[in-house]
Amino acid sequence: MSKLLVKEYPVMFQPSFAQELGVNGAILLQQIHYWLQTCSTTKDGSKWVYNTYKDWHEQLPFWSEATIKRALRLLEKEGYIFTANFNKFRMDQTKWYTINYAKINEWEKAALIDHVTIQPDLLDDTDCPIEGCRLDKAIPEITTETTKDIYNIPYSEVIEYLNSKTNAAYKPSTKKTQNLIKARWKEGFTLPDFKKVIDIKTAEWQHDAYWNKYLRPETLFGTKFESYVNQQPKKRQWREEDFNLNEEE
Q1: 211 with 166, same domain?
Q2: What is the extent of the structural domain holding 100?
Q3: pLDDT, tens only, 124-182
Q4: Do residues 197 and 229 touch, judged by C-beta distance below 8 A?
Q5: Does the model's pTM come out above 0.90?
Q6: If you placed Cys at 96, which of 49, 50, 67, 214 could pair as Cys (CB 3.0 to 4.6 Å)?
Q7: Ranges for the Phage conserved hypothetical protein C-terminal domain (predicted)?
Q8: Which residues does residue 81 pair with via DSSP β-bridges, in sequence order?
């Protein structure tokens, strides 16, 4: 049985942020963070997404546009988000948004919350194939099977397989490692995909003194994971010594 009442994606927010910013601010902050993870448009060294108040209202129809505007202004005033206008035409006043992750990390430390530092180097800074990332698409509906999968992420199986292939001793309980695996799992990748990446990169890097050090979770399961999944295994380069040319038939 699903942990959700109905097959609909829930609106998420952190209780600690709700105490600090109110429920409205906490929800919008989480929404912006969600979309920043799915978009790779980079402006001034940071990821940005854009949305009109009308589009926000379509995503979150239980609020009026005025309520959304007040909540966004509060987030900007308190320094949790930055806004800008990167539109091609001056008449287009659609706002662009990014999160002040340095502020988030400082706040977490001050609030004594179990915190994970967001690492900019793990973000893929390649440009989107489209100009910008508008937040006008609803978050996909969660089916019962998808909901079940979220609660059954095979952290141990992935790390144990990695350790067996590389003679390493990574722990499946490490929060940073779990966050990487969870991110790829939520993108739709499965256990065979993780094993495939481990197999491909182990064959490619294990005997290379320089690349061997990159056989680690933060490299294998980072934002280049999809390209690794689709990488074709390298064919063996045969050398003359691999053949016994003097062998009699």
Answers
A1: yes
A2: 15-122
A3: 333 333 344 555 444 444 444 444 444 478 899 999 999 999 999 999 988 899 999 98
A4: yes
A5: no
A6: 50
A7: 158-230
A8: 99
